[in-house]
Amino acid sequence: MFEDNDIHAYFVEVLKLALDKTNTSGHPIKIVPDPFNANQDRMLRQVNEGSTDVTWAVTSEEREREHLAVYFPLARGLLGYQVFLVHPDNQQSFGTRAPGEFKQSLSVQGIGWPDTDVMRFNGYRVEKVPLTMMFKLIESKMADYFPRSVMEVEYELASRPSVQLVIEPHLAFYYSSPTYFFVSKRNRRLAERLKEGLDLALADGSLIALYNQQAFAQSANNMLRERQIIRLQSPVLTPQSRQTLTRYQDFLLKH
């Protein structure tokens, strides 16, 4: 679900931490990664089918309805901060556009991504395309910008040296987009254990310490400094998610 293995590693370490905090038996925990780096929807289907015990994903009403969400914002809300990949010819023009004019620009999003609903709800134009097409559409100027999380955008550019795109320097979106662990509804015991472990790790400081060790955390903070943040309303948040964001508001990042 992320190209950057360091981001994968962070979620795995958070999972280990939650399990370690609740390990009363003394038996070691073994985490076996799924061999397929599948997209979020496929991983969630595997959770429902029972071939995967737990995965992490950006939440949505449908995902919470179909699976058992562990209501804890694992990435501190960082996935909701999104900068724009643009063609080099356009990198200076976005910051000078009026809000109404900017909404007429065409963005791209992935098929099945909750971000599409958020952007359209706020009046932005969105084209849903496969991930393999997104960079090409911006590079060819067939679309104007591709919002990417500050967690992952630098790695995505660095891993595609032939792609002629840049990060627009002035603006960023923010909308509430919590990432949760998801398990099968048949596995309530695991969900309860993970929630307890995450709360314990937050209370004793070990979770924030783990986050602060991540290179992407410092990079994201630097990228957001002095940007104009455009705050969007999210129509995909359930009442449970809204309560979660209120409960953990001190843990969430603020820019």
What does this structure look like?
The structure is a single chain. The chain has 255 residues and is α+β, with helices and mostly antiparallel strands. It has 11 helices and 10 strands. It has helices at 5-21, 40-49, 61-66, 99-102, 114-121, 131-139, 153-158, 188-203, 206-212, 215-224, 239-247; strands spanning 54-58, 68-70, 81-86, 106-110, 125-129, 146-149, 166-167, 171-174, 179-183, 228-231. The strands form 3 sheets. Strands 3, 6, 7, 8 and 10 form a 5-stranded mixed β-sheet that branches. Strand 4, helix 5 and strand 5 (125-129) form a beta-alpha-beta unit. The model has no long low-confidence stretch (mean pLDDT 90).
Number of strands: 10
Q: Which spans have pLDDT < 50 for at least 5 consecutive residues?
A: none
Bin the helical content.
40-55%
User: Rg to the nearest angstrom?
Assistant: 18 Å
Global structural class: alpha+beta
Tell me the overall shape. Answer: globular
Distance between the termini: 25 Å
Can you summarize the main beta sheet? Answer: 5 strands, mixed
Overall pLDDT score: 90
Q: What percentage of amino acids are in beta strands?
A: 15-25%
